[in-house]
Amino acid sequence: MSRRTGTVQPGDGHALTPYRPWQLLTRSLFHLHLTDEGGAPRTWSVDLRHGGDDDGEVRAELYVDGLHHATSTLPAVFPVPDGTIEVAASGYGLRRIDHVGPDGSARQLVPDPASAEGWRARLDRKHPALSRSLALASASVLLVALALGVPQIVEQLTAIPPVAQVVGGPWAGPVRLPETVNIALVVATIAASTERALRLRYSRVLDGGFFGGGE
């Protein structure tokens, strides 16, 4: 978790709204069962709207037994029994959402069954072979995008006059991709990064690269 974390503000007690089907790509909802200081079982839920609030800021909302308990900008660190709940996001969804114990051990929260992350987790349980194929395809797409994107970025940089003077002129990449191929590559990269985000998989190289959305 980044040293720069959001400020936690107290909640206002409003009720957690149910997850709706049309929120699959705009909302993440995760749950965790913990026992409070008095020994009573509680359900801690983290709700996150990826489009942000009215001010455009993306916030993690913490609920206890369905009632709003606290809010924080990202990355968020919420104090809870036996540790903290830590939340970080990328440009395509969540990077991590873990309960971190005093000893540093991390346990991922459970996605709401109705959420996109819940659907992806269910696919992994019921159809592991298909799940692995999708994961491999996503990683392959991002590797291809990285391999094709780096030369284009270098070519654009060396076309800047001050840079061209230093390196001895513009550099021409070995491959020229048609505009339609570049557009298709961007679309495929967004789909691949979204699939990885649904599994809370994040790599600075793959997911935070030239087409990625690192925090």
From TrEMBL:
Top-level taxonomic group: Bacteria
Organism classification: Bacteria, Bacillati, Actinomycetota, Actinomycetes, Micrococcales
Protein name: Uncharacterized protein
